[in-house]
Backbone:
């Protein structure tokens, strides 16, 4: 019953958000990037996002969630804010994890549609156009799936094992649960409560969206080799924490059949981090 009520609420809200194929006014759009030590990839990524958004929305914003970077990312973002008036920065004073960065991005997004992808440049943000074209009336989420993973062999194998484990444990129907290239209608997030700070947050997000009965369309996207920096995920401790959280999610949703604990991903009292930890950075 709750899933049906949530779906009805989304359908009502969709009447206020124009579909991409319509001829009326275009919806507003938030694009955000979780980033950690991505100083070398962010300039091209932000420029590409600004170029793409001009074609898709009259009202848009770009957000970078800097998850406690220790390289030149803060200085690079400060300069980028001078170049792009639509860019906002939310900064974690220390590294809190990929899940925490996503939760801060969702909590700070203000527009009707939300798109996010990683700040490391392994996806082409220009392919957001392909997702946007599929956001028809009645579609709640457009999710990318990797045509081919462009990572070293050991990372590809770890990714495949995790993918199969997540889909089996949570009975997920989607092709690629860990493809972080997603376009979501903002009201969908009212039905989602996010609690993890690890990479398991993607499974937590999509498991709740599927269970709530929202319609998901999947689109193939390209995945490119990482050009600089190091992945936050492919280290022993982050991988172990993500697997541990995945089993916690399985226990909660499948075995105990408990509703998610907390408030919606859009904000409230249970943000990704305490207000003192997630700090909007003003343009200078």
Residues:
């Amino acid at each position: 019953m709750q899933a049906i009520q949530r779906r009805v609420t989304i359908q009502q809200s969709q009447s206020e958000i124009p579909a991409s194929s319509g001829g009326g006014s275009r919806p507003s759009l938030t694009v955000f990037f979780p980033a950690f030590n991505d100083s070398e990839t962010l300039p091209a990524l932000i420029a590409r996002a600004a170029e793409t958004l001009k074609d898709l929305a009259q009202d848009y914003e770009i957000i970078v969630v800097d998850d406690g970077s220790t390289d030149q990312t803060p200085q690079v973002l400060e300069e980028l804010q001078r170049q792009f008036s639509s860019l906002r920065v939310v900064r974690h004073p220390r590294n809190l994890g990929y899940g925490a960065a996503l939760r801060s991005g969702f909590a700070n997004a203000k527009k009707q549609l939300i798109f996010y992808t990683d700040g490391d440049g392994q996806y082409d943000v220009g392919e957001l156009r392909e997702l946007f074209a599929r956001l028809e009336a009645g579609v709640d989420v457009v999710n990318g799936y990797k045509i081919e993973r462009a990572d070293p062999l050991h990372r590809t194998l770890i990714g495949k094992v995790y993918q199969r484990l997540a889909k089996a444990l949570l009975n997920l129907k989607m092709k690629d649960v860990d493809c972080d290239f997603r376009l979501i209608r903002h009201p969908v997030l009212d039905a989602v409560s996010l609690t993890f700070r690890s990479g398991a947050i993607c499974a937590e997000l999509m498991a709740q969206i599927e269970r709530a009965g929202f319609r998901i369309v999947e689109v193939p996207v390209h995945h490119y080799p990482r050009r600089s920096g190091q992945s936050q995920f492919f280290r022993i401790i982050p991988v172990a924490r993500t697997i541990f959280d995945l089993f916690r999610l399985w226990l909660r949703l499948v075995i105990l059949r408990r509703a998610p604990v907390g408030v919606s991903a859009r904000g409230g009292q249970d943000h990704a981090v305490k207000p003192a930890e997630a700090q909007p950075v003003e343009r200078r």
